[in-house]
Amino acid sequence: MKKVNENDFEYRNGDSGVKYIMRGPSIDWGIIKLNPGDFMAEKAHGHKLIDETFYFVDGNGIMIIDDKEYEAPQGSVFLVEQEEMHNIRNKSSKPIKIIFIKGEYKPDDKI
Question: What is 6-102's CATH topology?
Fold first, then answer.
């Protein structure tokens, strides 16, 4: 058993960005907080071997998959499959939070 608390981890950019909550041994997962106008990353990325699920838990955003934008109102879930390039944008005037789960723990699987 492994137990952690979200408050024990920091977002990549201080008050926003990606925050990993658990890394391995079987899955990778965490929280993304994006401030208004922010993107998850400077440019889209993908994974050769794993899929990744995104759950928009608080606020409305835009899910970008292979350069196509999809509305992502609160409650939306996206399963991004292998080799699909993806990013997220906060189009709202308030911060948004997204939970992400990578289907398998492979920290070097990034394209």
Answer: Jelly Rolls (2.60.120)
